[in-house]
């Protein structure tokens, strides 16, 4: 920050006066959390947050490269801002950030086809946004800040949480796995773990601020290895969960995402040792056939995966399990696909995120010649969705008649008398509620079930 004299301060206050920002987030929870950090930094600097994009004079797009057709959707939405930018000029600021900005061809496209974009910054440069805005307003020229390799982890950034009672906490950044379909190692860089001390301090502060549930985030939390302040005393992910389990005020611990190849017995055992760890595991399988898994560079077999599921359920019989599955990976035969279907029947996932394989420029699988025709991919996808949805509905039906502990998120957007929250097993529950229930853990009797949610009646509050 460059403000030194009173004049500078007054000038900056004028700049910020009435500057309202709005963030549109595409993609995963990591991106959602980055947006919370961006909002936290800007609020701390005196900017206001607009409820809707149309009311903002700083618009920020936090992009994703993982979801299908992400580029098309992003450029379509970005293009809609051109008219306003042409009309309002300096009084309207357009910023783009996130995974897509870590890809040179995307930055080149923005520079040539959307030259009116004011600020482009990468996933390693989030902490620089306030400075980039200052520079833009002082120097009146575009700002670009994208590092291709992650630098030091920046600690102590503020965050504007979406919920008062639950928070995301990054424990590591980046990924070393190079699954052949995936762009993340190129956009988020190599694995870097935060120090356990920094994580614990953040979670204690969150607990003091009313947070009851933390979700630990990383592309592959199972390979978390945080060194102590002395640079030694390495703490692995299971050790970290034990430390967090001791923090007063925190009632629930969740995490995502886990790579099956790094899922240790030690971590599986934490589910019986740490009572705050929720009975839920997101374990992406991606495919059910060994030959596809090999070409995806996943480094486990179907059998290894099924063994892990068995162990998880043996240690924690209440465990709910979800997954990610890609359909139509290059070279996937009908037999390979049948193996994915049969794996779903065998595991009986509580829920599954299903993806149509789509090419990511720069990844090895983009070069594979045996790409699957679109209509075949869609046929398989529909079959898979039918299977996973049927199983989800059957799993949910098992909850009817049970009393579940639900952390209440608040009223539903469409009906203020209906409240929703999550069970320890991450099931979404809707029930008639009242405002004081928000942020509390209450007992809910489950009365009926759907494919993606449960319905119930509140029976009592914990507090
Ligand atoms: N095509 C389809 N799905 C993909 N995913 C990642 N890359 C691709 C791709 N190129 C899916 C994986 C991952 C999830 C977050 O996104 O299933 O686990
Ligand atoms: Fe992508 Fe594989 Fe890393 Fe997950 S583990 S982020 S799928 S490369």
Task: Write structural notes for this entry.
- This protein is of the alpha/beta class and 463 residues long.
- The chain has four domains: 6-145, Methylthiotransferase, N-terminal domain (Rossmann fold); 161-277, Transcription Regulator spoIIAA; 279-398, Transcription Regulator spoIIAA, CATH 3.30.750.200; 403-461, Nucleic acid-binding proteins (OB fold (Dihydrolipoamide Acetyltransferase, E2P)), CATH 2.40.50.140.
- The chain has helices at 6-16, 29-44, 70-79, 82-88, 104-113, 129-139, 184-188, 196-208, 237-245, 265-273, 290-295, 302-315, 334-347, 374-397, and strands at residues 20-25, 48-49, 58-63, 93-98, 119-121, 143-145, 166-170, 172-173, 192-193, 213-217, 225-226, 235-236, 252-256, 280-282, 320-327, 351-356, 403-411, 418-423, 428-432, 441-449, 454-461.
- The strands form six sheets. The protein has a six-stranded parallel sheet with strand order 2-1-3-4-5-6, sandwiched between helices.
- Helix 5 (104-113) links the parallel strand 4 and strand 5.
- It is globular, with a radius of gyration of 23 Å.
- 38% of the residues are buried.
- The model has no long low-confidence stretch (mean pLDDT 93).
- 5'-deoxyadenosine binds at residues 66, 181-182, 284, 286, 324, 326, 355, 357-358, 360.
- Iron/sulfur cluster binds next to helix 7.
What's a quick, concise take on this entry?
The chain is of the alpha/beta class.
């Amino acid at each position: 920050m460059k403000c030194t004299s009173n004049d500078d301060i007054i000038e900056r206050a004028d700049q910020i006066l009435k500057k309202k920002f709005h963030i549109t987030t595409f993609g995963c929870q990591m991106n959602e959390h980055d947006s919370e950090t961006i909002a936290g930094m800007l609020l701390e600097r005196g900017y206001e947050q607009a409820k809707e994009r149309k009311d903002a004079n700083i618009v920020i797009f936090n992009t994703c490269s993982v979801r299908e057709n992400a580029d098309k959707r992003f450029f379509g939405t970005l293009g809609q801002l051109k008219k306003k930018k042409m009309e309002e000029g300096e009084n309207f600021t357009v910023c783009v950030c996130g995974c897509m900005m870590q890809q040179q061809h995307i930055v080149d496209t923005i520079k040539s086809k959307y030259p009116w974009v004011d600020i482009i910054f990468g996933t390693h440069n989030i902490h620089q946004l306030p400075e980039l805005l200052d520079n833009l307003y002082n120097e009146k020229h575009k700002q670009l800040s994208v590092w291709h390799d992650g630098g030091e982890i920046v600690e102590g950034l503020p965050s504007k949480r979406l919920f008062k009672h639950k928070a995301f906490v990054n424990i590591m950044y980046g990924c070393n796995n190079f699954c052949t379909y995936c762009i993340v190692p190129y956009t988020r860089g190599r694995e870097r773990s935060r120090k356990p001390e920094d994580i614990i301090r953040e979670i204690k502060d969150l607990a003091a601020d009313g947070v009851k549930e933390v979700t630990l985030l990383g592309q592959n939390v199972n390979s978390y290895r945080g060194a102590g302040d002395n640079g030694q005393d390495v703490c692995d992910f299971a050790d970290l969960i034990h430390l967090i389990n001791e923090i007063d005020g925190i009632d629930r611990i969740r995490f995502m995402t886990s790579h099956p190849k790094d899922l240790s017995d030690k971590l599986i055992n934490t589910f019986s040792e740490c009572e705050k760890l929720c009975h839920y595991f997101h374990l992406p399988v991606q495919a059910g056939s060994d030959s596809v898994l090999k070409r995806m560079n996943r480094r486990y077999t179907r059998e290894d995966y099924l063994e892990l599921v068995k162990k998880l359920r043996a240690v924690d019989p209440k465990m709910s399990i979800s997954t990610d599955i890609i359909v139509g990976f290059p070279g996937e035969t009908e037999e390979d696909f049948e193996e994915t279907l049969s794996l779903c029947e065998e595991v009986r996932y509580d829920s599954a995120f299903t993806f149509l394989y789509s090419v990511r420029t720069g990844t090895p699988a983009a070069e594979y010649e045996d790409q699957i025709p679109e209509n075949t991919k869609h046929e398989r996808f529909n079959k898979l969705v039918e299977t996973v949805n049927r199983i989800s509905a059957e799993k949910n039906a098992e909850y009817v008649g049970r009393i579940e502990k639900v952390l209440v998120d608040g009223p539903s957007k469409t009906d203020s008398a209906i409240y929703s929250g999550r069970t320890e097993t991450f099931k979404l529950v809707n029930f008639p509620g009242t405002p004081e229930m928000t942020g509390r853990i209450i007992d809910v009797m489950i009365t009926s079930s759907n494919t993606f949610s449960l319905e119930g009646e509140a029976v009592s509050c914990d507090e």
